[in-house]
């Protein structure tokens, strides 16, 4: 279930509101949301909410920003109201699916384990229903199909997971977005434990991808399979392809923290990550970066530096239950 969170939080930044109609909302709101800067989008659109209660675009963009900053409970009734007025709008259904997904992630983060997964069964059912409706109503909606495929791959079979359904989404994506199609196929191969086939598919995606996104996805796949040397090599390539992308720098630090290798490189990567003035909201918080720094210092037996990094992480921890747990575990291990 944690894998669902990693994959889909990143997808929510990929232009979720592309089908909304033009209106009174400043163009910067859509641009911020597409780039993943939801807090900035929220600050721009929130003043319009009370005075434009009947404006669908205002309410839609407000819901999108709320989901992006981790407030899905506030977004769900807004989106349900929009759907009641326009049930054939695929974008509204896609966004409601994203809201249910974020709510599910929050429940799991607060109460991980099998019991929580059972309680989340209805939320996952709601997520799938909305995304399936979005794909039916708007068959050219790339984000809906990618999100749907990701859930089919990551959810347990008894909760709706289905590799064949994910591959059907990849087939539909072939005519829409070749990179997205290849990445879905790569995820499916990894799900089936075919790491080499997954890596080959991600490499084909990267050859077509103008961003470092395919390389980051490949590196994350390697991390999930504990192939840390391959992961580091891939994240280094991602920083070379796009030095201004924050994600690869964080991932270099994460690999160092998990593996206990390349410790100096890990510190440098996380320092670079924290130096970015702006980072998309879906990326790990500064708290996670400080936690990883503390892990690295602990590996290097720099106990005072580790404690200082954990104290910096604790500033953010109250807002992130999963970070709270990881921080408690790390401090206990010192």
Overview of the molecule:
The protein has 334 residues and is mostly helical. It has a domain at 1-154: Tetratricopeptide repeat domain (Serine Threonine Protein Phosphatase 5, Tetratricopeptide repeat), CATH 1.25.40. The protein is 75% helix and 0% strand. The protein has helices at 2-12, 27-35, 38-49, 56-68, 72-85, 90-110, 114-119, 121-137, 142-154, 163-173, 178-191, 195-208, 213-224, 228-241, 246-259, 263-275, 286-299, 303-317, 321-333. The two termini are 28 Å apart. The model is unreliable at 1-22 (pLDDT under 50).
- Poorly predicted regions: 1-22
Oligomer: single chain
- The geometry reads as globular
CATH topology of the domain at 1-154: Serine Threonine Protein Phosphatase 5, Tetratricopeptide repeat
Q: How far is it from the N-terminal to the C-terminal residue, by CA?
A: 28 Å
Structural class: mainly alpha
Per CATH, which architecture of the domain at 1-154?
A: Alpha Horseshoe
User: Count of helices?
Assistant: 19
Concise structural overview:
The protein has 334 residues and is an all-alpha fold.
């Amino acid at each position: 279930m944690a894998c669902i969170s990693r994959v889909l939080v990143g997808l929510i930044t990929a232009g979720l509101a592309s089908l909304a109609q033009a209106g009174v909302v400043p163009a910067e709101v859509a641009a911020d949301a597409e780039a993943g800067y939801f807090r900035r989008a929220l600050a721009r659109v929130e003043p319009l909410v009370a005075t434009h209660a009947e404006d669908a675009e205002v309410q839609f963009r407000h819901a999108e920003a709320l989901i992006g900053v981790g407030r899905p409970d506030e977004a769900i009734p807004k989106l349900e109201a929009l759907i009641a007025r326009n049930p054939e709008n695929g974008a509204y259904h896609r966004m409601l699916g994203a809201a249910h997904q974020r709510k599910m992630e929050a429940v799991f983060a607060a109460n991980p384990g099998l019991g929580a997964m059972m309680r989340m069964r209805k939320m996952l059912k709601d997520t799938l229903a909305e995304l399936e409706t979005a794909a039916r109503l708007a068959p050219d909606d790339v984000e809906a199909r990618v999100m749907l495929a990701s859930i089919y791959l990551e959810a347990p079979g008894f909760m709706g997971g289905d590799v064949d359904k994910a591959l059907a989404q990849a087939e539909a994506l072939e005519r829409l977005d070749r990179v997205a199609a290849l990445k879905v196929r790569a995820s499916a191969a990894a799900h089936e434990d075919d790491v080499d086939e997954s890596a080959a598919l991600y490499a084909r995606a990267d050859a077509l991808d103008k961003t470092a996104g395919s390389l980051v996805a490949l590196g994350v796949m390697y991390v999930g399979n504990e192939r840390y040397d391959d992961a580091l090599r891939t994240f280094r390539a991602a920083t070379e392809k796009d030095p201004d992308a924050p994600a690869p720098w964080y991932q270099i630090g994460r690999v160092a923290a998990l593996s206990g290798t390349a410790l100096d490189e890990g510190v440098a990567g996380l320092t670079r990550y924290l130096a970015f003035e702006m980072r998309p909201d879906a990326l790990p918080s500064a708290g996670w970066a400080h936690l990883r720094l503390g892990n690295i210092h602990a590996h290097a037996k720099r106990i005072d530096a580790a404690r200082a990094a954990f104290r910096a992480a604790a500033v953010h921890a109250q807002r992130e239950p999963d970070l709270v747990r990881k921080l408690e575990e790390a401090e206990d291990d010192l």
